[in-house]
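Exercise 7. Given the encoded structure of a 89-residue chain, write a plausible sequence.
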């Protein structure tokens, strides 16, 4: 039984500097499992985007959604910089 939600944004990649996917969820472990098992279908399954490379936790879902939209509008290099600043490997 779930008691809490933990809104967060996440970026997944197919590999180092590979295809990227940015999403938002209230249950990151479950969402990662869905992506890795292919139960979500779509983009992440088609391009084998299964590696978590960045995430940020928020206190409210609306803040997480706002941040997700911001990142989705960024240039690719800005996303790479964000990822590599916190996760150089």
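Solution.
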């Amino acid at each position: 039984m779930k008691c809490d939600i933990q809104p967060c944004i996440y970026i997944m990649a197919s590999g180092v500097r590979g295809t990227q996917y940015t999403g938002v969820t209230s249950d990151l472990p479950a969402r990662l499992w869905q992506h890795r098992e292919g139960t979500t279908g779509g983009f992440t399954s088609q391009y084998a985007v299964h590696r978590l490379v960045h995430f940020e936790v928020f206190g409210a879902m609306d803040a997480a959604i706002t941040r997700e939209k911001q990142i989705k509008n960024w240039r690719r290099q800005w996303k790479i910089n964000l990822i590599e600043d916190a996760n150089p490997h």
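Remark. The chain has a mean pLDDT of 90. Students should compare their own answers with the one above.
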